[in-house]
């Protein structure tokens, strides 16, 4: 048999030639499964005690006629679906999409991404005047529909743009906002005349997962609605938000926190919250999770009380939420600053408080609280969840006076922080998390009315022709949405309660307490 060039070179150098014929099929299979030559060499060393360099491996593959198959991006449906998700659902720019794709193993250049976007029908610029005019009409129709739902009442330019992108629209940001300003100048004026807030402390926050803030929005608490959220301090990414009732507050906060930790397989170094009142179980759980991987960690190293100065991140976000979503239901008197006139108190509309002042609602009257929950809980949850999704994908501008605030999109700063920014997330002990979650598997924290009461309300609302999960469009300027439906359901609930009919209308009662998370030694 004629000697191959590789055999001749090995003989001339005095080094024995490595025989890989027995492992040929295995090597080719590994290469076709996207394993690099260097990794194949490590595999051969570990499994067969064969020492070979990656350069020699590359030459051997070439000799066998094995060539790397370049993936065709044009026909890669998985890549196309991922691009559409990152563009519409997450609201990323081209450069941000490329960063995420590279982290996920896709080799896509900016030019290729632009070509794929056009292939998918996603065009950012419209050069034709006719196309621009057609988009104005499309914006007008879409805005009218969303304004009727009441979802975007207080959105600013960035939130508005990202909200419609999440709905599948590709609108020019300024064109969209100009039409919105023409339709609702009152909303724009309300945002620009915001009340003054105390400036935050100049504290530099190092990176994601260093501190998670958990806190509650109390302005609707007098009406039975408990709103809690958890935010990463560096990125201002909202990890979760829950709109519930008093009976499920402590358990609901804990359950959502554990779900976030499980999904991300990471936990923050520090948890900051009002731990002694509304979320008493959360501090114990976080301390236990830290102790599971760091037995010597002290409680004050991982749990901190939520003082006003330290919780500015989440307090600022609550102000944004109130201004954008819940102002219709509860807005306190504002102090706005008018040029040449100075600070001026302005009383704004407060629908829920007006119901109370008219004697049409009291949180201590079960039929009235049941009616309010049945109508407005699904609506508030839908609007707030939509806002959170939009918030996480909107762009936060750089502020020269606040260097502690990281610019950019919360999603990118949390999941793909800039170069040089450390991710402080810590590993999680899976058995410990699973044991905690198992404690309340059957506990439904999304429940806001007992099952019997909920079925009765659904039947009554169906008879009234009202679906809170898909409410009808509101009339322009309607500051008391679905008041007639509330009054009708309230009257039926009162009559049902006075007659002593079944089922007996009731509110949710606290479930079993969750204890036993704290280690014996502190």
Automatic annotation (TrEMBL):
InterPro entries: Clr5_dom, Integrase_dom_put. Residues 206-330 form the Integrase core domain. Residues 19-67 form the Clr5 domain. PANTHER family: CLR5 DOMAIN-CONTAINING PROTEIN-RELATED, EXPRESSED PROTEIN. This is Clr5 domain-containing protein. It comes from Penicillium salamii.
């Amino acid at each position: 048999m004629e000697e191959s060039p590789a055999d001749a070179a090995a003989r001339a150098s005095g080094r024995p030639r490595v025989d890989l014929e027995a492992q040929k099929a295995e090597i080719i299979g590994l290469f076709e499964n996207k394993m690099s030559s260097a990794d194949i060499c490590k595999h051969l060393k570990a499994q067969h005690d064969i020492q070979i360099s990656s350069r020699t491996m590359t030459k051997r593959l070439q000799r066998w006629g094995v060539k790397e198959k370049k993936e065709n991006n044009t026909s890669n449906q998985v890549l196309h679906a991922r691009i559409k998700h990152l563009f519409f659902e997450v609201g990323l720019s081209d450069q941000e999409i490329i960063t995420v794709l590279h982290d996920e193993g896709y080799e896509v250049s900016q030019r290729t991404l632009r070509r794929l976007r056009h292939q998918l029908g996603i065009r950012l610029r419209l050069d034709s005047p006719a196309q621009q005019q057609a988009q104005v009409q499309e914006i007008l129709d879409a805005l009218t529909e969303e304004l009727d739902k009441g979802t975007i009442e207080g959105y600013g330019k960035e939130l508005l743009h990202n909200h419609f992108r999440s709905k599948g629209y590709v609108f020019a940001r300024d064109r969209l906002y100009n039409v919105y300003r023409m339709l609702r100048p009152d909303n724009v004026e309300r945002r620009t005349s915001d009340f003054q807030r105390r400036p935050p402390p100049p504290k530099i926050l190092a990176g994601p997962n260093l501190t998670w803030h958990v806190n509650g929005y109390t302005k609707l608490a007098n009406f039975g609605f408990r709103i809690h959220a958890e935010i990463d301090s560096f990125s201002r990414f909202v990890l979760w938000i829950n709109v519930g009732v008093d009976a499920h507050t402590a358990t609901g906060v804990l359950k959502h926190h554990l779900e976030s930790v499980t999904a991300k397989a990471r936990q923050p170094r520090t948890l900051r919250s009002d731990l002694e009142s509304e979320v008493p179980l959360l501090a114990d759980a976080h301390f236990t999770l830290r102790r599971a991987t760091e037995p010597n960690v002290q409680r004050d190293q991982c749990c901190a009380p939520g003082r006003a100065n330290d919780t500015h991140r989440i307090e600022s976000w609550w102000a944004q939420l109130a201004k954008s979503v819940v102002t219709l239901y509860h807005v306190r008197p504002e102090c706005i600053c008018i040029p040449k006139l100075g600070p001026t108190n302005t009383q704004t509309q407060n629908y829920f408080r007006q119901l109370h002042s008219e004697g049409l609602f009291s949180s201590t009257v079960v039929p009235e609280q049941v009616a309010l929950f049945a109508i407005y809980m699904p609506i508030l949850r839908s609007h707030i969840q939509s806002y959170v999704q939009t918030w996480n994908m909107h762009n936060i501008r750089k502020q020269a006076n606040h260097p502690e605030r990281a610019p950019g999109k919360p999603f990118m700063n949390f999941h793909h922080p800039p170069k040089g920014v450390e991710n402080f997330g810590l590993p999680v002990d899976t058995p410990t998390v699973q044991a905690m979650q198992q404690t309340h598997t059957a506990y439904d924290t999304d429940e806001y009315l007992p099952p019997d009461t909920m079925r009765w309300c659904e039947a009554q609302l169906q008879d009234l022709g009202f679906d809170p999960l898909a409410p009808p469009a509101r009339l322009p300027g309607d500051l008391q949405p679905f008041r007639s439906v509330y009054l009708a359901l309230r009257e039926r609930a009162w009559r049902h309660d006075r007659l002593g009919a079944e089922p007996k209308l009731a509110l949710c009662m606290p479930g079993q307490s969750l204890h036993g998370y704290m280690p014996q030694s502190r």
